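Input.
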Amino acid sequence: MLTQHINAVLGGGVVGCAVAWHIAERGLGEVVLLERDMLGSGTTWHSAANITVKAAIFEECADVPLYFLLIAARCDIDLLAAALEKINKNALKCPVEKARGNARKYTEL
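Output.
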C-alpha cells in the first residue's frame, strides 16, 4: 500500500520550481520536477492556469531563489563553486565567438 505521494511537476520554470518547493516544504510527499531545458529559466506562458497577474508572478519569482538556496543548503552545495563550474561548462558548450550576436540555441551554433 502506498503511504506517501510522489508528486510530478511538469515544467521547471518559475512557477514549476515554486510549486515543487511548496510541495516539498509542506511535506506532501516526494517531488519529481520534469524540465526539458534549464531549471528556473523563466516561464513559457503556456500553462493551463496562464497566470498573468503581476502580484502572483512577483511572489513566485521570490520563491525561486529561496528554493535554490534551501536545496543547496540541504545538499551541502557550494553555490559559488557550482556557478563557476557551470560558467566553465557553458563556455565550452557556447563559445563567445560563436554565440555573441545571435539567438540560436547552442546546438545550432
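Residues 20 and 47 are 15 Å apart (CA to CA).
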